[in-house]
Amino acid sequence: MNTYSIDKILARPHTAPVPEEGASLETLCVLLGKYVTIKNFHNIIIYADRLPEEYNVLLIKNCIARTYNAEKLTDTKIFIDWANRHSEILT
């Protein structure tokens, strides 16, 4: 059984385990949204890109919704690149 640690995900988004079950994926999307900062947003997007498409979008939308200064996140190059890759879902 994998343990899904927020600290591990934020530190090693390329290799941190990704859950297979929907409930665990949804829980991680909510939790990561609570921990988003401008400093770790890049790593959250890297991890999000490893998730199934619907959870990828859910995670990033959750991050934007939960931050007090969403425009700082949405003005980053990594977010703009991510949004361009997912534009068909976001519209």
Q: Count every helix, treating DSSP H or I runs of 4 or more residues as helices.
A: 7
Radius of gyration: 12 Å
Unreliable sequence segments: none
Strand segment tally: 0
Major β-sheet, in short?
none
Mean pLDDT: 89
Q: Please state roughly what percent of the residues sit in beta strands, choosing from under 5%, 5-15%, 15-25%, 25-35%, 35-45% or over 45%.
A: under 5%
Order of helices and strands: HHHHHHH
Q: Pairing-aware structural class of the strands and helices?
A: mainly alpha
Question: How much helix, percentage-wise, in residues?
Answer: 55-70%
- Oligomer classification: single chain
The number of distinct structural domains comes to 1
What global shape is seen?
globular
Q: What distance separates the N and C termini?
A: 37 Å
What would your notes on this structure say?
- The structure is a single chain.
- The mean pLDDT is 89.
- Helix content is 66%, strand content 0%.
- It contains seven helices and no strands.
- With 91 residues, the chain is an all-alpha fold.
- The radius of gyration is 12 Å and the shape is globular.
- The protein has one domain (6-90).
